[in-house]
Amino acid sequence: MKYVFEDGRDFAIKMDSNDSLAHFRDRFYLNEGEIYMDGNSLGLCSKDAEKSLFRVLEEWKTLGINCWTKSEKQLFLYQDYLGELLSPLLNARKDEVTVHANTTINIHTAIGTFYHPTEEKYKILVDDLNFPTDRYAVDGQLKLKGLDPDKCIKIVKSRDGKLINENDFIDAMTSDVFMILLPSVLYRSGQLLNMELITKEAHKRDIIIGWDLCHSIGAVPHDFKKINPDFAIWCNYKYLNGGPGASAGLYINKKHFDKPAGLPGWHGNVKETQFQLNYEFDKASNAGGWQSGTQNILSMAPLEGSLKMYEEAGIKNLREKSLKLTAYLRYLTENKLKKYDFVIGTPYDDEIRGGHLALEHDDAIRINEALKAQKVIPDFRYPNVIRFAPVPLYLRFEDMYELVERIIDIMENKKYELYENKIETIA
Fold first, then answer.
1. Could you tell me the domains of the chain?
2. Pairing of strands 177-183, 208-212
3. pTM across the whole model
4. How confident is the model at residue 426 (pLDDT cuts 50, 70, 90)?
C-alpha cells in the first residue's frame, strides 16, 4: 500500500484523532512520558488481563479444589476455552489450537510427534536466522534419537544475513528432507515469509512443515485454512500481552489428530476417562491431546482478558494500524535520521513486513542505552539492531514522532557516548 505522510507533530496528532482503535490505549498500564516500543519482546499489562487474572485468583481463593469445575470458565478445560479465543487469529478450527507449556517444550512436543526418519528421508530443514531456542530443541531431539545434528540438519543460509529468500528454501527441499521448521517473521529484521508458498511446496514433496509464530501471532493475521501447515508453536507474551512467561500456544492440524503425542501426559487424555487413572494413555482427538501435565492456570488467566480485547478490536483492524505505524516510523526515519547513519533492515512492502521495524547502526548498543535514559523502551538485538514495535493496541502516531525526536536529541548531543559498548543481560 502507498502511504502519504507529512512531517510535523500536528500531522501525527491528526492521524491519532482519526484512529478508531485509539481508545484501547486507555486499557493498558503505561508509564507517564514513556514510549514503550518493546511489545515484540514483552507486551504491556492491560486492565483486561488484570481483571481475568484477579477473577481466577478469587475463584481459587473461594472455591479451593472446586475451582477446577465450578469456576466461571471451568479451569479444568481452560486451555480449550483459550484455544477457541486464539483460533480466529489463525483462522483455524477451535479444536486445532491449545494453550500449553512454553514455546521450546512445544517444539520438542511437535518434533517428537512428527519426526520419524528413514534411511532415505531424515533431514530437518532450517534457516540460519531463527531464534536459537528452535535449534536447541531440534538438536536435542535428534540427539535423543541417537542421530548426529551435523548430518541431519540442513541449513539454508541467508544471502545477506538479514532476509530469507523463499526460493532458496524451495530449492533445498530435496528428497532426503523429512521436516521443515521456520519462523513466520524473522526476529531481527521483521521479514514476513510467504508461509502459504513454502508450505505448499513442502507438501508437494511429502515434507512435514511447522511454523514458529512467536513474532507474528497477534501482529499478523494468519489463514491456516489456506496455509495448511502441519503444526505451529508460539509464545503468548509478546503482541498478545499474556504476561511474563505466559503459557504458550500450540496448533496441530486436524489431519494429524490420530497421531500419538510426542511427549504424552495425563492432561492429554480423553477427559471422560482421565480420572479413571488407567495406565494406558487414551489420547484426546484434538489439539488438547498434546497437553502433558496439569496446566499453569495463573500463567494462562491474563491471556483471557487480552484475547477478548483482540476479539473486540479485530485482528485485521490491528494489522492495518500496525502497518501504518511501521510505515510512518519508516517515513520519519528516512527523512530525519538518515544523516545519522541509521539503516532500516526491515522489508519495505506490507506483504513481507511483520509488526516491528529494525533500525541498524554501528553504535546501536550505546544508542539503545541512551534511549532508555530518554524514557524510550527499545529492544537491542546483536550485533547492531534496535527493534521498535509500534503495537497498535497501545501506541500512537504521536509516539512515533516523539520517538524520532528523542533519537535526534541523542545523536545531535552525542548522549550515547555516555554509555559503554556493552550488552546488558536483558537488552
1. 9-30+314-418 (3.90.1150.10), 51-311 (3.40.640.10)
2. parallel
3. 0.97
4. low
